Amino acid sequence: MSHAHNHAHLHPHQPHDSWDAVDADAPEAGPPSRRQLLKYGGVGATLTAASAVVPASAFAAGHGRGRTGGRAWRAGDHHIHSEYSGRFDTSKNPPVFAKGADAVYPIVTNAIMAKNFGLSWVMCTDHGGPTHSKVNLELAYPDLLRSRRLVPEVLQFWGMEFDAPQMDHHTLMIPRRDDEAQLLYELESRYAKLDAFPSDPSRDTEAKMIEFLNHTQRMSSRPLVIAHHAARSASGLGVWGQDTPREFRNNQDVAPDVYVGFEGAPGHQAGPLNGDARGGYGNYPTHGGYDQMTAVVGGLWDSLLGEGRKWWITATSDSHVHWTRGGSDFWPGEYSKTYVSARQDYADVMDGLRTGRIFVTTGDLVTSLDVSASHAGRAATVGETVTVKRGRDNDVEVEIRFRPLQGTNGNGDRPQVRRVDVIAGDVTGPVADRDSASNPTTKVVGRYGPSDFRRHGEEWVVRHTLRDVTTRGYVRVRGTSTDEMEPAADGLESPWDDLWFYSNPVFIDVA
């Protein structure tokens, strides 16, 4: 796919609008103060319905042009821990569970804080362990039902942080059904590697993971499985740990409608505020807060996309303990957001995650991001494919629309987008080497700064032309508040000073 482009300023005779103008209609209420965080989020805090009245977010879900059928960009988080990420006394048979060991907040506390920070949907993903399937079914699920009643504005999915056989943790999201608790119980008790007591080594094999995915792909109501902090155990750049490119490919080949991606921006982003690495990536760091599998242009993500795989990225909090209480975490939605184009409906949010109607951001750098590719009157957006017919006019027009934050983010800042990058690569089909982690055709084909942004209402618009497209490919977009040409390896800088957003890809076919 040709990467030639038109990088002309779009409005050379039009004065650049000030960023202040975007804030004209911002609500007065903003993110919670430090006092509110401590009041509502104290260790072991139990919130009543009366205490659930917290300030409305200045960046609530629903901004942006949205989609047909009532869809809009709705922010969420599919990786959140509650007090049910506890401990087990295995000296007794059966093991005895105690709440509040690894994570400390009640399910409803997380839901209230998610609402406060503008989230429309969340998911409780507690750790497993010996006989944890029974804990989920008998103890945690009734609390989830109570939280749904107390915070009805937030869709609250049921699932867990799945102890994936032979791999690191994964989201296991269960469709919203009357029998959702039983569905999770059956999957966890049968397949989670840590659920058996006494422990069973046969549960921790690649064959068991494939068996699990085969089963879920055949289910009438399929769950979703998304890899967590995929390169956290990597010991260097491209030196993989628990999760490998081969495993991702094998897993998706077995369950393409279930196994759909990994966290682009892992949780634990507040680590540097307490002297720890972002994401808990102590061996090899994140880049701009994003896992190396996502952040490296032409790296593993692009290798998967170059096969034509529908492989999506998300951003989560992995919230356990807030950084103001000595943890390494932000509240759900306080720093990282996964936006899904969907109706405020469980099934449609899950469909958006499954089909890639997603963009991600940190620090509320943007509150909407629409990316489209069009040719000869046909257009596609993220997760979709536009077809180019062979002929003399093979140009593809890429349009990027984004909305900056109105008001301030969780740090009291109003971040500014300093650059938008257009990234394109070829789709060449399956790779011979299942451990391949590179796509040499993928490049940054356009870089645009504020003088290139064109104002359209409350949105900014960037347009880019892919010239003479004759082969299959894809285009994706990222943006940043920094002046880094590529996201640098992270140290202990404040995460609020290093913000990025990423779209998922739009595919281009040639017929």
Summarize this structure as a short list of keywords or feature phrases.
Pol/histidinol_Pase-like; Phosphoesterase; 22 strands; 9 helices; TIM Barrel; alpha+beta; TAT_signal
Layout of strands and helices, then pairs:
Layout: H1 34-41, E1 72-80, E2 87-89, E3 96-98, H2 107-116, E4 121-124, H3 132-150, E5 155-162, E6 170-174, H4 180-191, H5 206-218, E7 224-227, H6 245-254, E8 259-265, H7 292-295, H8 300-305, E9 312-315, E10 336-342, H9 346-355, E11 358-362, E12 366-375, E13 378-381, E14 385-388, E15 396-404, E16 419-426, E17 443-448, E18 454-456, E19 459-466, E20 473-480, E21 500-503, E22 506-510
Parallel strand pairs: 1-4, 4-5, 7-8, 8-9, 14-22
Antiparallel strand pairs: 1-10, 2-3, 5-6, 6-7, 10-11, 11-21, 12-13, 12-15, 15-19, 16-17, 16-20, 18-19, 20-21, 20-22
Helix pairs in contact: 2-3, 3-4, 5-6
Q: Can you describe this structure?
A:
- The longest helix is centred in the N-terminal third of the chain and has 19 residues, at 132-150.
- The chain has a 15-stranded mixed beta sheet that branches.
- Helix content is 18%, strand content 25%.
- It is of the alpha+beta class and 511 residues long.
- It is built from nine helices and 22 strands.
- It has one domain (19-510): Metal-dependent hydrolases (TIM Barrel, Alpha-Beta Barrel), CATH 3.20.20.140.
- Helix 3 runs antiparallel to helix 4 and helix 5 runs parallel beside helix 6.
- A hairpin with a 6-residue loop joins strand 2 (87-89) and strand 3.
- It has helices at residues 34-41, 107-116, 132-150, 180-191, 206-218, 245-254, 292-295, 300-305, 346-355, and strands at residues 72-80, 87-89, 96-98, 121-124, 155-162, 170-174, 224-227, 259-265, 312-315, 336-342, 358-362, 366-375, 378-381, 385-388, 396-404, 419-426, 443-448, 454-456, 459-466, 473-480, 500-503, 506-510.
